Amino acid sequence: MKNIIIALVVLVVGVAAFFAGRMSDGDSPGKTEPAAVAESAPAAPVPSPGPAQAAQAQAQAQAQAGMPQRAEVFPVSPMSDRPVPRQIAIPAGTKPARDASASKGSKDAPVVFIEISDFQCPVCKRAHNELAPLLTDFPDQVRYVFKHNPLEMHRDALNASAASLAAGRQGRFWEYADALFADQRALSEPDLMAIAQRLKLDMKRFKADYEDPALRQRAKTEGDIAMAIGARGTPAFLVNGRLQVGWASYAAVRQQVEQELAAMAALTSTGKTLRQAREERVRTMLPEAEKLLNTPLGIELTER
Question: Which of these, 207, 223, 93, 77, lies nearest to 153 by C-alpha position?
Answer without folding.
Answer: 77
